[in-house]
Amino acid sequence: MRQGAPSLQRSRWRFCLFTLLYLYQGLVAGFALTALANHFAAAGASTAEVGRHLAVVGLPWVLQPLLWGPLVDRAAPHRMGPRRAWLVLSLLGAQASLAGLLLLGARPSLAAVSIVLGLHSLAASLADTATDRLIAGSVPADELGRTSAATRAGFVTGSAAGTALFAWILAADGVPAASGALLALTTPLALAASLVREAPEDALVSFRWRTAPRAPGRGRVLDTIAFARRLLAAFRTRDAALLLALCFAVDLGLALFQVPFAVALVQVHGWDAGALSRLQAALALLGGTLGAAGIGAAVDRIGPGRALRALLLACAAAFGAAGLLIAAGLEAAMGPVILGLASVVPALLYVALLPTVLLASRAGRASATQFQIYMAAMNLGDVAGAALAGPLAAAVAPTLVALGVAGLFLVCARAAPGR
After folding, report:
1. Does residue 255 have a pLDDT over 60?
2. Which GO terms describe its cellular component (predicted)?
3. What is the DSSP string of 202-259?
4. Rounded to whole angstroms, how far apart are CA atoms 170 and 277?
5. In this structure, how many other beta carbons lie within 10 angstroms of the beta carbon of residue 238?
6. DSSP state of 142
7. CA distance 291 to 149
8. pLDDT value at position 127?
């Protein structure tokens, strides 16, 4: 039945769907986390204000496993597919949230924009949970590296294109015009992504359950308790605890350095916000496309654990070099090189980290929640780093921050799985 319909049973449609969904995420991230942050930094927002914006937008991603993991793991059967039904619904909510940016007026405050984008993150994090569950349930183990590379390439391509485009629109026409362009670009992606079914026989659009949801009662309570016990048991092992700590530490270290360094380039060294956004976009594109393809193939060949350890060591070397350049007084002149060291190598790291986390969480009925807890640890590290970046930058020299991050990556490399 409908054998020719696009579905996750065929490799090419898996790559198409997951790449489109991460391209969508990247466009929003390029707008919200880079172009918009640089725009308001150029308008006089402090490092602390920019950090609060990043924290508000990132908070729903920290709460993601509590909000959406159990919902997707325990989804009742649906004519559209149990995970795809949530994906389509969440994309609709995400687009409605982006439309809310158009209601903020001609010169919205950073705080108002942060709140609306935080609402978008609520819906987008549900879409991401459903996407990750679809990946875990449909991608063979020997395809995880290439799938990770495809999703990373989709994200950074969207982020790079979004950063460059929205930086230009923000400078020329302001936040409302950039918000309208974001909505126009992401809506076709959301619609296209909704066309790939979980199975060929699934309905394209339906509001009917295949079976009636179970009524609340003692059975549901006991099922919830059993689900929580399985989930806790999955994180009691030493390897799971170390991987959870590693996920947190990676994004914490990156945010502690990247946020104040970008603000300093604009406010202290006189860089143009648009030029900074375009450089960040180009660096992200370099690491996330050509670099990601090579790393993805290597992950499938040598295993994600060995690739992850090697990239953690490379990150330590990159931040060590950045710290030495800053110590030599070359922060302004060598800004592009330092940005490259602090962004390109870490971008490649995620290509190996995603398969490692998927393999650690794909077994059992709580796989979506397990995976999202690892991802939430990364987002929590990012939010914590963004929130702490301002106070740390005021108290610690950037050289010491860079060298401290290098040391953190060395510790992570020592703790990382080796296979």
Report:
1. yes
2. membrane
3. S-SS---BSSPPPPSSHHHHHHHHHHHHHHHHHT-SHHHHHHHHHHHHHHHHHHHHHH
4. 11
5. 8
6. G
7. 9
8. 92
